[in-house]
Amino acid sequence: MSAGHDVDETRPHDPGDPTQGSRRTQQLVTSIIALYGRPQPLTVAAIVRLLGLLGVEEPAARTALSRLKRRHVLVSDKRGGSSIYVLNPELEETFREGDERIFTPRRARREDPWVLATFSVPESHRNLRYQIRKILTRRGFGTVSAALWIAPGPVYEGARRELERDGLDHLVEFFSARSLAQGDLAEKVGTWWDLNDLATRYRQFEALFRPLLERWRPVTPEERACAEAFAEYVDAVTAWRRLPYVDPGLPPECLPPDWPGLAAERLFGELHGLLAEPAARFTRELVRSI
Prior knowledge:
Arc Repressor Mutant, subunit A; three-stranded antiparallel β-sheet; Transcriptional regulator, PaaX family; WH-like_DNA-bd_sf; PaaX-like_central; alpha+beta; 12 helices
């Protein structure tokens, strides 16, 4: 399991790529469990029914549940004669952190300290080196050089905990630092992170979900408690939840003018405000009826 609600989501979903169908279904299952399966677990029947509202057929839904169980993301059990799936207790802290990072993002200020990560792993253990790089990338670190990584200070705790869970924390040294350079820090940030790719992801999110916001704004809260609102909210959360990790909250002063991430953050915040509670109400009523 990777950061937050992320299940190794390193690539955006491409509906034209048949190899991503299973990945997409697992992402949707993870969203549903994260949003509606804590602390009360969901039965298999309820999960399958909810996935059906997202266009996932029952065989694909059950396959995704089995794969997430094999990956130790979910744990199966019985309750009241019904089969249930719950989040692996070892991941509860990770998901709580994900809740905060996804739903209450924080942007660093230019004057805030940065965190530096450095490591040196022998070639004979290059698999460990790969794992460390993967974790730092998932956590939103930028690359200064092959063995020196950088991120806004608040990213440190989550990165340290994930490295510790994987038994890699003893291989990585962290330092708190401030920039003393007289040059343009924004220019350096542009070399440490792939801002073009990140901007593209933000614009794609805006293009997909701006029409939803305009459509739901005039709808009353009572009318929003429906299957369509549930499906579109889960889609929005699933599309969004990777972005606060790829972009670790870089200071606005260090980003290009008219940075699309700021508008996308506001868009997701508005969608969350409009649809989260009605979608949860609809889900509770549906689960009770099964």
